[in-house]
Amino acid sequence: MKRVAFLFTSAPHGSSAGREGLDALLATSALTEDIGVFFLSDGVMQILPGQNPKKILARDYISTFKVLPLYDIEQCWVCAQSLRERGISAGQDFVIEAEALEPEALRARLDEFDVLLTF
């Protein structure tokens, strides 16, 4: 079975990419257990707690990331450089367990996967 990586690169509000990526991620988990989840660029904001999307009339799906361990999705990484560029501490609590990696280490992890899906 191929190893599949999901890359979240867009901010959680303003487009449906994050929500669609999460739906695809959960659906794919029924087919394979070898899934990696990466949060890069503005995608690091997908897993920040305390967001209130209802204030901008958006649907709250961010808390749904909390169910990833129930789907045996435990390989999650966040780009440390992307966090710094957005003024977010690497020690920040996220809605899921995600290991912060520098870009070079993140690329090495990505190379371990056969299929990359970007949202």
Shape: globular
Assign a percent range to the helix content.
Answer: 10-25%
The main sheet comes to:
5 strands, parallel
What is the terminal-to-terminal distance?
22 Å
How do the strands of the widest beta sheet line up side by side?
4-3-2-1-5
Quote the average pLDDT: 89
Pfam families: DsrE
GO molecular function, one term: transferase activity
InterPro entries: DsrEFH-like, Sulphur_relay_DsrE/F-like, Sulphur_relay_TusC, Sulphur_relay_TusC/DsrF
Protein name: Protein TusC
Outline the structure in words.
The longest helix is centred in the first third of the chain and has 12 residues, at 17-28. This protein has a five-stranded parallel beta sheet with strand order 4-3-2-1-5. The chain has helices at 17-28, 80-85, 103-110, and strands at residues 4-8, 35-39, 75-79, 99-101, 115-118. The chain has three helices and five strands, in the order βαββαβαβ. It starts with a strand and ends with a strand. The radius of gyration is 13 Å and the shape is globular. Helix content is 22%, strand content 18%. With 119 residues, the chain is of the alpha/beta class. InterPro entries: DsrEFH-like, Sulphur_relay_DsrE/F-like, Sulphur_relay_TusC, Sulphur_relay_TusC/DsrF. Heterohexamer, formed by a dimer of trimers. The hexameric TusBCD complex contains 2 copies each of TusB, TusC and TusD. The TusBCD complex interacts with TusE. Its main location: cytoplasm.
